[in-house]
Amino acid sequence: MAEVDPAPRGTDGEPLLTVEDLRVHFHTDAGVVKAVDGVSFDIHPGETVALVGESGSGKSVTGMSLLGLLPKPAAQIPTGQILWRGTDLVPASEAQMRKIRGQEISMIFQDAMTSLNPVMTVGKQIVEMIRLHLDVTRRQARARAVEMLDAVGIPEARKRVEMYPHEFSGGMRQRAMIAMAIACDPQLIIADEPTTALDVTVQAQVLEVLADVQQRTGAAMILITHDLGVVAGVADRVMVMYAGRLVESAATDPVFYDARHPYTLGLMASLPRIDVDDVVIGSDVDLRSGRRLKPIEGQPPSLLHPPPGCSFHPRCDLADIGGACTEEVPALRRVAIGHTAACHFADDLEARAAAVGTADAIDLVHAAPVVEGPTA
Ligand code: SF4
Questions:
Q1: Ligand 1 centre distance from Cα of residue 344 (Å)
Q2: What is the secondary structure of 353-374 as a DSSP string?
Q3: DSSP code of 166?
Q4: In the prediction, which pLDDT does 233 show?
Q5: CB 16 within 8 A of CB 8
Q6: Residue 137: pLDDT band with limits 50, 70, 90
Q7: Which DSSP helix (H) or strand (E) runs through 252?
Q8: Ligand 1 centre and the CA of 321: distance in Å?
Q9: What are φ and ψ of residue 207, in 5° steps?
Q10: Which residues line ligand 1 (CB under 6 A)?
Q11: Cβ(301)–Cβ(311) under 8 Å?
C-alpha cells in the first residue's frame, strides 16, 4: 500500500489555505520577471510554516499575493489558485479582499516605523482597524486596543494607547503591529521578516509574543524570513524558496537534520550558532564546532533570464555541469514521508559529494545540524 503523508501535527487534515501552482509575473520594460514560478503548498489551522530564502527568492511576493497586495497592473497571476477556506482568492475583487484582509488573514510587516502612521496614535490606528471589520462602538474598539497591547506585552497599555509610534522603542512598535494584526482574531497571520530590524534579544521576545498569540487564538502563521536560525525554535514546517520556486519542504527537524537540497545546506552552513556564549562576533568560525562559516558564493539568478536546468547550478558545490543539472529542471519530488526536494541528487547527497570530491562539496553535506535559533 502506498505511504500517505500525514497531516501536520495537531491538525485534522483539512487545510485552511491551499496554494496550487501559483505563478506571479512582473511585466517590465526589459521583459517578464517570473517572481513566483509554480508554487504549491497547504497551510493547516494552528500551524507555523516558515517560508525561507534569500532576498529575491519570491517569498514576500508569495505572501503579498495571498492578500491581493501585488502592485497592479505590473504584477499578474497567469495561472494558479489561492484557495482560502475553499474560495479562490485570485479572481476576488478589491472589495472582497478588503473584507478578508485584517479580519481573516492579517500581515505583519518588517519595518513597523514605515508601516504605522506617524501622525496618528497607536491606539487610534488599532481602533480604526477594528471598526473597519467589526460592528463595535468606538469605546468598545478602544477597550479592545488596550487589551491587544496588553496581550502583546506592552506595559501600561492604557497609557501607551495614546502615544505616537515615534514614542515607542523598535521592539514595542513591532509588538504594536502584532497587536493590530491580531485585533480581529484572524485565522492566518503572515509575518514578513517580523524580527529582521530588531536586535537578537528583542527578536526572541517578539517571536515569543507571536507564539503566545498563536497559542491563545489558534491562528496559523506563515513566517517569511531569510534566516533559517529564526525558524529553528518556532516553526512546525519549513519551505525553502529559491528563484521563485520551492526547492525543499518538510517538518522542521528533517530540514535541519536531514536536508536534501544543497541550497538548504548552504543556508545552514552560513549560520553561526547563536545559542552559545563563546561565538566571537565578527569571527567566521563557529567556536563550538570549530566549523568555518561558509557563505553561499555568488548571487541569486536573474529571474528575467534564469539559467538553464537547475537555477541553483551556478552556485552549487554539487552541480553536475554539462549533465543533468544544466540540462533539466529538477522537479519538486517526495524524498521521504512529508519531505520534498527539487534536486537531481536529493536521494543521496553524500554520494554526490564523494563523486565531486572537492573539500567544499564534502564540507557542505556535513554542515548540518548546526542551528538552534532563538526559541519562542
Ligand atoms: Fe545542485 Fe544539481 Fe541539485 Fe541543482 S540539481 S541543487 S545544481 S546538485
A1: 6
A2: HHHH--HHHHHHHT--S-----
A3: G
A4: 79
A5: no
A6: very high
A7: helix 252-257
A8: 9
A9: -65, -35
A10: 261-262, 310, 312-313, 316, 318-320, 325, 330, 343-345
A11: yes
Q: State residue 171's pLDDT score.
A: 84
SS3 37: strand
- For 361, the grid coordinates are 562539496
267-302: per-residue pLDDT in tens? 988 876 544 444 444 445 454 455 566 788 888 999
Three cell numbers, residue 84: 482560502
User: Which cell numbers in the block locate residue 99?
Assistant: 473584507
Q: What is the residue whose three cell numbers read 497607536?
A: 122
What is the 326 CA–ligand 1 centroid distance (Å)?
Answer: 9
Q: Residue whose CA is closest, atom 5 of ligand 1?
A: 343
Give residue 318 CA to ligand 1 midpoint distance, Å: 6
Sign, CA dihedral 330-315-251-369, equals: positive
Which runs of consecutive H residues, i.e. helices, occur in 94-199? 94-100, 112-115, 122-133, 138-151, 157-160, 170-182
d(CA 173, CA 176): 5
Dihedral sign computed on CA atoms, order 124, 130, 131, 135:
negative
**35-90 confidence digits (pLDDT tens):** 999 999 999 999 999 999 998 899 999 999 999 999 888 899 999 999 998 899 99
pTM score of the predicted model: 0.87
Instruction: Pick the closest to residue 191 from 214, 168, 170, 169 (CA basis).
Output: 214
Residue to probe by mutation, ligand 1, list 240, 245, 312, 328, most atoms within 8 Å of CB: 312
